[in-house]
Structure formats: C-alpha cells, structure tokens
Amino acid sequence: MPLRGVRVLDLGILVPAALTSGKLAALGADVVKVEQPPTGDRIRLIPPYADDGKSPQHMAQNWGKRSIALDAKTNEGLRTLLELIAIADVVIENQLPGFWKGCGVDFVELRRKRPELIVCSITGFGQTGAWSRLPAHGLNMDALGDGLNVDWRDGQPHLGWAFTSWGNELGATSAAMAVCAALACVRGSGAGEWIDVSCWDALVESHRTEVAMTRRTGTPFSLRQMPSMALYDTYLASDGRPVMLGALEPKFWRRFCEGVGREDLVAAHDQTAIAFAYDQFELRHELETIFATATSDEWLSRFLEWDIPGGPLYDVPALMATQHYVDRGIVDGDEGDWPHVKLPFRWQSADSRAGAGLEQPPEYNQHDLEVRSDWLGHGSPAD
C-alpha cells in the first residue's frame, strides 16, 4: 500500500478528523487514534445505536486504526502525547485554533525542531478569518456554505436527521489529499507542512461555477435558479419512482426517441454539442407521459440497452439491492456484521480495492500497550 510505514496520530474528536485518518489508514498508514478519557471520542456517542450498543458513525469511520487513551491535561498524558508526536509523520487535529497550544502542544515549535513533521488542522472555518473562532458541527458549516437543504413545513424550516454533512465529507477528502501531497514534499525536499483545512472552504470550492459566474457578471447567480431543462431532469415512472434522463448530446436524444418510437421528437434537440432544452414545457409534458408507461427498473434496462445516460433515483437500501453494488465490491463483511465501506477506487494492476482487509474499528483504549511498545519502545506508563 502506498502509505505503508507512515505513522499518523489522530487527535480528532469529531467526524472530519476521523474521515481523514480513515482514508489514510485505507491507503496503508499506521493510524493511532488518541482518545480523551473516560469515554473516548465523541463519535462513539452519536446515536442511533445498534443492538451491540455501538454507534454506526464510529463503526463506519474508524476501520484500520489503533486506539490509545491519553489525557493531555495531566502531566503524564501530555508527556506521552509529546513522545508520540515526536515519532509521528503526520498529526491530525480538529480543535479550534489555539486549543492545543493552550494544552502545551505548540505545533510551531514542534515543527521548528522537526521540519519534516506534517500537521493537518481541520476546522469548520479555518485558522484565520472572521469566523475562525466559531464552533462548528457539520450542519452549521453547511448552512454558512450553501450546502444545506431545508424543508419548509407550516412556514418553518426543518432539517430532519442528517448523517451526512457535505462540509465534513469535502473537508476530509481535501485534508487527505493535502496530507498525501505534503508526504510527497517530505520525500522530495525533507520539508513537511502545517496544513490549514477549512470545511467551509471546501464547500465554497464546490460552488466554483456559481462563484465564477457571480464574480464575472457582477450579478448573484445560483444553479438553483436555472430554468427547466427537459433533457436533463427527472420524471415519474409508472411505479412512482423518479427516473433521471440525461440525453444532452444529439446521439443520446436520438437513441431515446427511436427507443420509445417517437422519432418526431428528435428535432426538439437543437443539434449543438450539448442541449438542455431550456423551458420547453411542451416537451417536458410529452416526456412525463412517456416515462409513465414503464417502471423504473424497465427504464434502467432500456437505458443500458440503448446506451443512454439515465437511471432511477435510488436511496441507500435500494442501491444496496442492485447487482452493481455486489459487482463493485465496495463493501466488505457478511450479513449481520459491521460492514466496511472501502475507498471508491480500485488498484487495477492488483485487482483490489484500497482499504481491503482492514481490522475492525478499535475499542476505546484497546491498543494502549501495543502502541507504547511499537511507537515508543516501552510498555505501561510506569515502565
């Protein structure tokens, strides 16, 4: 694995750090998760709990890691933590700026002594800026970064329960990529880096089209304001499931029209390289009638046969029931066990997927003696 031999110390207590170190573990890094006594990181406490009392968030995000409990507010805990940092290649943390310096961990000084050290600080809003001191959970980062969808009921906004924060997901992916880039720099020049990852920045970067258009034209622009697009939209199938059609190119639209026996609609495409059929409401009405004649599964079969982009809108249980889910092998584990959702790419030369074969997420402080032995060369704190 590409990161075999890289030692990563995860000081995080919430999702962005866990996701980041999890991606690095899947790439082969030796990840040690430092947990705060007496309960460990907060992800362990996030409901709903399974029948074994464990949090699905913790079990999904911490494969391939080892756990050691340290209280940095005690002299012994701080001493051991600094010893681990002195061995680590990468330190990941996600506290507000200045927190660790207040605990006696000065990353500026540590990097002065060890320039090759990589520190990755993941926060909601970054190390600088007007909001840098604002405490962050996933959804308030999303709210301030145009990443939150709100349902309005009785004139009031409602979110419902949300496991996925796009700020968390994008921030963690950016952090893992930045750590890998910094490791490449260490191998080339010997110099590490202190990486400032803002989950809010990651959200803004994902809105690059709206930002570019707004800055270029001087007029506020949002993709939510786009007109109706008959050739790039969803339609209800006969079983009530929405089906997405993506017949933007002339070849795809022609195949669709021929497949449904409506060659008379071919001319609705303006024959440019890509056409969306903006505000063609009569065409949309025709397509609504066409899609209502078959089930969503039938439409997927037709799209595969006709070689057309499109497909039903699946939720997670529905996608897990598909043959493609089985074929891709992205999830390990037998029915009833905690599954491991691996990284979304395969090593073609080895015919394997990154993250295969990792150990289950650790119990709290499970690897205390093992980590002290492997990293520090001694056993218990008294040794």
From TrEMBL:
<feature type="region of interest" description="Disordered">
    <location>
        <begin position="352"/>
        <end position="383"/>
    </location>
</feature>
<feature type="compositionally biased region" description="Basic and acidic residues">
    <location>
        <begin position="365"/>
        <end position="375"/>
    </location>
</feature>
<dbReference type="Pfam" id="PF02515">
    <property type="entry name" value="CoA_transf_3"/>
</dbReference>
<protein>
    <recommendedName>
        <fullName>CoA transferase</fullName>
    </recommendedName>
</protein>
<dbReference type="InterPro" id="IPR050509">
    <property type="entry name" value="CoA-transferase_III"/>
</dbReference>
<dbReference type="InterPro" id="IPR023606">
    <property type="entry name" value="CoA-Trfase_III_dom_1_sf"/>
</dbReference>
<dbReference type="GO" id="GO:0003824">
    <property type="term" value="F:catalytic activity"/>
</dbReference>
<dbReference type="InterPro" id="IPR003673">
    <property type="entry name" value="CoA-Trfase_fam_III"/>
</dbReference>
<dbReference type="InterPro" id="IPR044855">
    <property type="entry name" value="CoA-Trfase_III_dom3_sf"/>
</dbReference>
